[in-house]
Specification:
globular, 0% strand, mainly alpha
Length: 113
């Protein structure tokens, strides 16, 4: 059996494109120790569909992409654009430690009066 190597979850919680969603989905799948074949089977989709989503291909429909993300434990939130930066910062502050997140937190602390 092939060993599944976990990929790190994206450090920025804002999903701006299909590639960013795909990275989050791949991270959730690999963190669960599921192969792409096993995850697709469990969700009830084609292996190629999951592969396309993880690769950031925009050909996977929105409804299906949301279902796959939900099934693998990835939550997407929608906030008004005017409050997106505040929401992004607050979510980032709650994410598990990751070197890039820690660096950004330190930079914000230094800038704060």
């Amino acid at each position: 059996m092939k060993r599944i190597v976990p990929t790190p979850f994206p450090t920025d919680p804002e999903v701006r494109d299909a590639a960013m969603l795909g990275a989050a989905v791949r991270s959730a799948r690999t963190a669960s120790g599921l192969s792409i074949q096993d995850a697709a089977l469990a969700i009830g989709i084609a292996k190629q569909t999951l592969s396309d989503l993880e690769a950031g291909k925009p050909s996977v429909g929105l409804g299906l992409s949301l279902r796959i993300a939900r099934e693998l434990g990835v939550t997407l939130l929608a906030v008004p654009a005017a409050t997106a930066e505040v929401a992004r910062r607050r979510i980032s502050d709650q994410m598990p430690s990751h070197p890039a997140i820690a660096d950004r937190r330190e930079q914000r602390k230094r800038r704060a009066p």
